[in-house]
Design a protein that fits this description.
Blueprint lengths: L1 H8 L9 H12 L4 H11 L3 H10 L11 E6 L2 H5 L2 H12 L5 E2 L5 E6 L11 E3 L2 E3 L4 H16 L4
Parallel strand pairs: 1-3
Antiparallel strand pairs: 1-4, 2-3, 4-5
The chain binds FE2/S2 (inorganic) cluster.
Length: about 160
């Protein structure tokens, strides 16, 4: 982790106003923000640890726990809800044995539920990483998940 932190810190001066971008880069590098990394960031940008922890917990974009290789976001907005998002949610939870904001034991997937993502015409919709999948039903969703599972097993996804 030290090496990863040094890589990030090398692009910054170590000033207070760099806190958020430094945290973002550390998260990108490590995948989440471990406590130890936040302490190092506090030292680097010279702010109290409590301030770093405060910022990291305030913004939804920061994650304090390890996350899966693939992030599933199921839209639970009105249009998606009306078109059966809850059935898809139930199936995802059963298939992957996860709860909302949970990560599968094998670290392949993290499951999140989100508000409207602006693709209501394709409802119900989910995204996996940066790809959007629309007009879902539970079986279609299962097939999509299977393709990501194979990718992950094959090494680089
Ligand atoms: S409600 Fe799901 S994309 Fe808009």
């Amino acid at each position: 982790m030290e090496e990863q932190l040094n890589t990030v810190f090398a692009s910054y001066k170590g000033e207070k106003n760099e806190l958020i971008p430094v945290l973002q880069d550390v998260q990108e590098e490590i995948g989440y923000l471990p406590e130890e990394a936040m302490r190092e960031v506090a030292r680097f940008v010279r702010v109290p640890e409590s301030k770093v922890f405060g910022v990291a917990t305030f913004y939804a974009r920061f994650h304090l726990q390890p996350r899966g290789n693939h992030i599933i976001r199921l839209c639970c907005g009105t249009a998606c809800h009306v078109r059966g998002a809850s059935k898809i949610a139930d199936r995802i939870k059963t298939e992957l044995d996860v709860e909302v904001n949970g990560t599968t034991e094998d670290m392949k997937f993290t499951y999140e539920e989100v508000a409207c993502i602006g693709a209501c015409g394709l409802a119900p919709v989910m995204t996996i990483d940066k790809t959007t999948f629309g007009k879902l039903d539970p079986d279609k969703m299962k097939k999509i998940l299977a393709t990501f599972g194979e990718d992950a097993e094959g090494g680089e996804a």
